[in-house]
Specification:
Length: 213
């Protein structure tokens, strides 16, 4: 087998009987469709509520108009995904492409979260600027250093963005730490069946390892 993406289909074909192959493929297809419609719904909702309603219509859009825009956005995202699919197919490994693509997003989000947790003076402009700056920085690293692993590109991008947020914090710190609203207490008691269910899952996992070792 020369392609890593063929490992899972080969395992299904060689290890499962005929009846279970169909069930496994149906479950796999259902999982893929569930993830796809969730991503399309999330993307259309973000575009409709956070961009169209807030910045274009300034909160004046009617519910019917929002539903229509959401449907149009979903169709546009589907069309864009279909046009982009051949480019993804040329990369050799879909999983590696997805992980590499996250480098445009995750370093900025990680830097913003870390400064939000450990710094009370970081301005919001620093977090927004870091997430926007992460896209050209990571793209430049991919272009100039193509033989370096993309995980190293992500680490370098994170360090650059962290330095940017630190400089912004020093130059334009918040006058006072933001005050968070008081949240009601959250019950943390666990169910008495939780430990037994967890042990059952561990036992089933170990049994699967023994069966297919």
């Amino acid at each position: 087998m020369t392609q890593a993406d063929q490992a899972y289909p080969v395992l299904i074909r060689e290890l499962l009987p005929v009846g279970l192959r169909g069930i496994m493929l149906a479950a796999l297809f259902g999982a893929v469709m569930s993830s796809l419609d969730s991503m399309l719904n999330s993307a259309a909702t973000i575009f409709t509520i956070d961009l169209y309603q807030r910045h274009w219509k300034k909160g004046q859009a009617t519910p019917r108009e929002l539903v229509t825009i959401g449907r149009v956005a979903t169709a546009a995202f589907v069309l864009f995904g279909c046009l982009w699919a051949p480019i993804v197919g040329r990369t050799g490994s879909v999983f590696q492409y997805i992980q590499m693509f996250w480098g445009f997003i995750s370093p900025g989000i990680t830097a913003a979260f870390l400064f939000g947790l450990f710094s009370k003076r970081t301005p919001p402009e620093a977090a927004i600027g870091a997430m926007l700056l992460g896209i050209p920085v990571y793209g430049l690293l991919l272009w100039k250093l193509p033989h370096v692993a993309f995980l190293h590109h992500m680490m370098i991008t994170f360090l650059v963005l962290a330095a940017f947020m630190w400089i912004m914090t020093k130059l334009r710190p918040l006058p006072e730490p933001p005050k968070m609203p008081d949240a009601p207490p959250i019950p943390m008691e666990t169910s008495p069946r939780l430990r037994r269910m967890g042990l059952g899952i561990v036992g089933l996992t170990a049994l699967l390892y023994l069966l297919f070792w």
